[in-house]
Design goal:
The protein starts with 13 loop residues before the first strand and ends with a helix. It has a four-stranded mixed β-sheet. Strands 1-2 form a two-stranded antiparallel ribbon. Helices cover 32% and strands 24% of the residues. It folds into two domains: 61 residues, Arc Repressor Mutant, subunit A; 67 residues, no CATH class. The radius of gyration is 22 Å and the shape is elongated. By secondary structure, the chain is α+β, with helices and mostly antiparallel strands. Strand 6 and strand 7 form a beta hairpin. Helix 1 crosses helix 2. The chain is built from five helices and eight strands.
């Protein structure tokens, strides 16, 4: 699925179905589908007009509705398309800078390598009860 950026919409402008489709590079039937899903239109007359503020709000709400946030101890698996716990509850911390790095683990369901960016001060809260590999201990003692 393609990610549509609601910030491309000019909120003080009205759009026709064709203009909204061209703005996001989608087919006009996609915009008609949005109207059936509940995107408000100005009135029932033709041409159908959509207020920019309502279009941006609709797309933002739609994105938030399907968004899946990772909880503590979870990484996002791109193969499973869901937040997953790493296999055996184990992860490695790979430092990138002094204050941040990546947690790396393997999906317990499909075995795919997963990463999660984390700042060092928030590492304990994000990692929850994960077992860290030797790279984390070597970095924290340095």
């Amino acid at each position: 699925m393609r990610r549509l950026n609601p910030r491309r919409v000019k909120v003080h402008r009205s759009y026709t179905v064709e203009e909204a489709a061209k703005l996001f590079g989608v087919h006009k039937n996609t915009v008609w589908h949005w109207l059936k899903e509940g995107l408000p239109k100005v009135d029932g007359r033709r041409p159908i007009l959509i207020l920019g503020r309502q279009l941006a709000g609709f797309l933002h709400a739609r994105r938030e509705r399907i968004r899946q946030r990772c909880g503590a101890g979870q990484f996002y698996c791109f193969r499973c398309r869901a937040p997953m716990k790493p296999a055996d509850g184990a992860a490695d911390y790979l430092p990138l800078t002094v204050n941040s790095g990546n947690l790396r683990g393997f999906c317990a369901h499909c075995g795919t390598r997963m990463y999660r960016r984390v700042s060092l001060p928030k590492l304990a809260a994000v990692a929850d009860n994960l077992i860290y590999g030797s790279r984390y201990r070597a970095h924290s003692n340095a």
